[in-house]
Design goal:
This protein is of the alpha/beta class and about 350 residues long. It is about 35% helix and about 15% strand. The protein contains nine helices and 13 strands. The strands form three sheets. The chain has a nine-stranded mixed beta sheet with strand order 2-10-9-8-6-3-4-5-7. Helix 6 packs parallel to helix 9. The longest helix has 19 residues. The radius of gyration is 20 Å and the shape is globular. The relative contact order is 0.18.
């Protein structure tokens, strides 16, 4: 079973911030706010693959609109199904605000919608065309989210689930695509990786071999077929401490934004928001140098996302990939940890480079 512990239950020797999760916070009154008819999968990509199979069963799906700012794992399932992909523009406008322009592409049979990082305050131009597929990975714990014909996402981005992909449809499913059992080898990799990370953090081992295990798990998900969730996750999903996750993330993000709002893509946190990260926008060279400096301080902040061979981007669309870094604000950490991140960023800003 996954570690169902909080940071207070283990004395951490290594005080790194970020990287993969090792635990799932639970409570007796918890539970993910999704209906009983939700279908659960090994990953968000598997959930999206299942949705595409349903769209194909229902009628023509020749062309889909995806956000230009997205992970390649959102693109692959469409291309594998023989669907043409167009990228509608997502960029930082002249006012420094995130802009999402659905009108930048012709009408499509389906549009994938992504509420970025769990925030609600950004500029939207036009409306999605065709069937709407909402990727709720970023916004699952926010109070205001888009409503679509389909909804999918991944809880692995929020806590230490082995699987955690989910999908919903507004109506009855028409696909007959099989949902295979989750691969036991993959589940074993995830369990071993999480166990070894916890051992490292609590001083019971000195190496970081778990990083390779996590990578092997991700490599498997990139190529696996449409698989379901595992029994362990099905139980934990019913007891996930959503209130704790939401309150801790909001508190941590508020601390970061109070000190670093001038660099933040979303400088204000609304009452409805539950942030996945706190994204900053900096010039490319400065962004890359900051990331290296944070790593030297054992603070591991991701960049969203790598540009792949599957992306077809304009210079305007590419810019956000080059300038963004996501500060960690999740429930594993406290205000003290956020102050450590702030100190590191401010120290970096005053350094001669």
């Amino acid at each position: 079973m996954q570690q169902q512990v909080t940071m207070n239950q283990n004395r951490l020797i290594h005080h790194e911030i970020g990287s993969e999760f090792w635990e799932v916070p639970t409570s007796k009154t918890g539970g993910v706010p999704l209906p009983e008819q939700t279908k659960w999968f090994i990953s968000g990509t598997a959930a999206l693959t299942y949705i595409i199979s349903d769209l194909l069963a229902a009628g023509p799906l020749n062309r889909a609109a995806l956000p230009s700012w997205c992970c390649s794992c959102m693109i692959h399932p469409f291309l594998r199904a023989g669907v043409e992909v167009l990228f509608y523009s997502v960029y930082v406008n002249s006012s420094g605000r995130l802009a999402v322009d659905y009108s930048s592409v012709p009408e499509c049979d389906a549009t994938l919608v992504l509420p970025y990082f769990g925030y609600s305050d950004y500029d939207v131009i036009g409306t999605p065309t065709g069937k709407t597929i909402v990727d709720l990975t970023h916004g699952i714990f926010s109070k205001t989210t888009p409503v679509g014909d389909y909804t999918f996402g991944s809880l692995r981005k929020w806590a230490g689930f082995y699987t955690g992909g989910f999908a919903l449809k507004n109506g009855d499913w028409q696909t007959t695509a099989p949902i295979l059992p989750a691969d036991e080898g993959y589940l074993g990799l995830r369990k071993r990786a999480m166990d070894e990370k916890l051992q490292y953090l609590t001083g019971r081992r000195d190496d970081k071999a778990y990083l390779d295990l996590f990578e092997q798990g991700e490599d498997f998900l990139d190529t696996c077929s449409c698989m379901g969730s595992c029994e362990q996750d099905a139980a934990l999903i019913q007891r996930l401490d959503v209130d704790f996750i939401r309150s801790r993330r909001r508190e941590n993000a508020s601390v970061l934004l109070a000190a670093l709002s001038e660099y933040a893509l979303f400088p204000k946190l609304s009452e409805d928001d539950c942030p996945l990260f706190v994204p900053l926008i900096l010039p490319e060279e400065e962004r890359s140098a900051l990331r290296r400096y944070l790593i030297s301080q054992e603070i591991y902040c991701p960049i969203h996302w790598p540009v792949s061979d599957l992306h077809r981007l304009t210079a305007q669309q590419l810019s956000i990939y080059q300038n963004e870094i996501s500060l960690v604000c999740d429930q594993r950490y406290t205000v003290r940890d956020m102050e450590r991140i702030i100190h590191a960023v401010k120290t970096f800003k005053t350094m001669d480079r």
